[in-house]
Structure formats: C-alpha cells, structure tokens
Task: structure prediction
Amino acid sequence: MRYRPFGTTGWLVSEIGFGAWQLGGDWGSVDDAQSVRTLHHAFHRGINFVDTAQMYGKGHSETVVGRALKAWSGDKIYVATKVQPTQWPGVTEDDPQMRGRYPAWHLRASVEGSLARLGVERIDLLQLHCWMPDGVRALDWLEVLNDLRCEGKVDKIGVSLRDYRPADGVELAKLGLVSAMQVIFNLFEQRPADLLFNAGTAPAHIVRVPLDSGALTGSWTAASYGTWPQESVPARLFRGARFAETLERVEKLKSLCRPFFPTLAEAAMRFTLSPPRVSTVIPGMQTEEQVDANIAFSDGAAFPADLLAQVSQHGWPRNYYQ
Result:
C-alpha cells in the first residue's frame, strides 16, 4: 500500500481508502459480520482511511464501522463521516443558499449521534454532506464546526461537493477554509482534474465513485440490471434507458483500454489515482476479494499517456442521482 499526504493536515493516508456506503444496506442486503471481516482485512492490508455518513443506512454504516474499530488493535485508522443538511437543495438549483442548512442544534446533535455510533471520542474528519458555494460567505456552519473542534469532538472539517458539480468547490479550495473536499472523479466524470485539483494548495481531495457506481468494473452484462433489488441504489440510478446507454459506453471504454489493461476496473482505478493532488480514492467494497483487487492497483505505476489522451474523449458527466 502506498500513502499520500492528506492535504496540509500532516496525515499520511492510504491512497486506496474504504468507501462504506454499501455497509449500510442501501445497495442490497448485507451481513454485518462479513462487513466487519472485510474492514479488518482492509486494515491488515494497509488501508487506514474509511469514509462513511450518518445517512448511509440511516446510521447503520457508522455502526458497523464502529464495531470494526472497537475490535481493531492495530495502527491508526482515520474515519471520515458526514452530516446531511436539514434540507437538501433541489438537484437543478445552481446557487442554493447555505445559511440555515446546518444550524448549530443540528450539527451538534448529528456529531453526538455519529460519535456514539462510531464509538469514538473524536471524529477525525467531519464533512458537510452537501456543499453549496454560498457557504464561503454564509459562515454560520464554520463557526459551529470550529467550536466543536475546540471542544475536542471533531479534529478536521471537510465538505462533500454536490454530485457532478466540481466547480462548486473552486472558491472554497482557494480560500482554504476546510481540510478536505470529496468529489466524484472517474473515467466518465473527468472535469475535477482541470477545474478543482489545482485550485488551491490546502485541501486534501477524496475521490468518490471511482467505478461509476459499478459501471466501470466492466463486469456488467445486459442481464445485470434484472439481478438488482428493485429499491436498491443501483436499480434507481440506472433505471429506464440509463442502463443500456451506460452499458454501451462502457463497452467502448473496455475496447479502448484492453490493449493497456486486462480489465476496465484496473483502468478506472488507475485513472483516478493518476492526479498527484488526489489524496485517496474510496471504492465501495463488500468482500476481502474486492479489497485485494483494489489494493493491487496501489503500486505507483503511471497511467499511460497515450491512453490518457484517448479516454479524454469519453468524458460523460451526468447526474443519475436525480
């Protein structure tokens, strides 16, 4: 496992982190005991950064991560979690107001809940689950989070940028108000490399959805959609004509990447690791085998320049969360 600086925090984190949304059960049925085993396997293999949130399985993901931490006696594991706003802005709102979305009572109650579920005395990284650019001027959220830091309940603060809106973080990055930013970055959503990663010197960059919610694993077939539980996250994301269009684009990428990598998953993961300003990439993992497969890409190999030029033509930012 290779490690990278986490912005200016002084932390060294594994460049492959552990995305824990799926442990909450929103992606399908889960076995908590297996989830804990998978987390411990990841820790033993050198992963030291876990990302979860209070809304993942209505807190269940945090609870499972907490169980794993309680039974772990090895090296330090950095845990990042998130607090959602009292009201989410509409998907099509371009400039929603930040003030009032994270009132003091809400942030404090959320932090206490996360501390209890995780079983820790201090949250390593607390992220606002929905960042709005107006927040660089409406700073009520920052005052409360700084108070929580002074009280020892939160160490560092960060934000998660709204889906497929990397430009929303540019001004915040330049101002250096937070320690970390989380953003979607993958073979389809390539814009953060130009828009965000070089916008400021302070924040660490956490890359989520590196495999496009499963599409870029390259393992899908025309029959895959019918195997997903109807109310699961992937079934909602790729409903209707979305699945067929995504699969068609995936097949084109597989053909393009085949001369360079044995699988599309390897190409996708190595692409997200290629920008030096990326601190950690957090794929979702449910089994030890998935952990091992992702860790194998942490070897420092450069992404082929010829392929990088070619995949740039396959950018396809779209928001399937709406």
Summary: The two ends are 36 Å apart (CA to CA).
